[in-house]
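chain below, 303 aa
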Amino acid sequence: METPAVIRPKMPSTMSLRAIWLHLRVPFSFFLMPVFWFALSQSPHPDQARTWVVFAIIHLLLYPASHAYNSYYDKDEESIGLLASPPPVDRTLWGVAWGLDVLALLLGAWVGWPFVAYLLVYGLLSKAYSYDGIRLKKYPVLSWLIVGTCQGALTYLATYQAINQVAVTTLVQSDLWLAAGLCTLNILAIYPITQVYQHAEDGRRGDLTMSRWLGVRGTFWCTGVIFMLATAGFYFFFRGQTPFYCLQLCLFPATLFFVIWYSRVYRKPHLANYQSAMRMTLLAGVGLNLFFIVYWLVAEKGI
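prediction:
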């Protein structure tokens, strides 16, 4: 008689380093970077070492940790930001997300305790956004406002405080709050567009995102209205002077693409797809980064 084969339990799979890297979506941090450059451009006496440590913690640890945690709970099978074909995820990604958060907190302690508090608040809210037991992503307006505030105003004020090492009480200045509010408006404008092609998958998970709640055409209207409010705010912030018009010039390709894209989507809603959304996000990201980097160099370095 043949000896029966021994059936061994199947070991859980472990994600490859490449799959983990893809889900961190580090390049996506580029689109959130204008908030940092804006804060730096308004900084009177930034500490050079702290400036670049803060930059690295936010864009290479905090944001990727949030992306990884979100990917673990979403388990996307269709396209997500800068990831056309997301690889399968397992518990490894969950551990990586927490590991990056812990590393961010340890490095943040060197920057200062107010910055650590920011990292904690941002990290916990980003997890509440994704975690099944809370899942803020199910609540369209609330999640939209939280994302806009955390990635916009909160990050701006935390960056300004950390790189200038000023007392938290100094953040009550009206110019800082106006700049922080403008950062939030920019995020509120672009965020629904990054969800506009995910309605079917969000629906299968039971997530009522802002874009799904508004519908395809409503998403474009929301983005357009918020963008116009941000434009008016920047006119007031720059007092109608040259920097305002330079900002509009940098954003012109994104604005033109948005108008043309919407004219097509209005007739054919299926054109609100991943490829177009990423092009829109890329154009806006390049325009804002270019403007604020040049503005910082001109204002602070005298170039």
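The two ends are 86 Å apart (CA to CA). The longest helix spans residues 210-237.
thats it, cya
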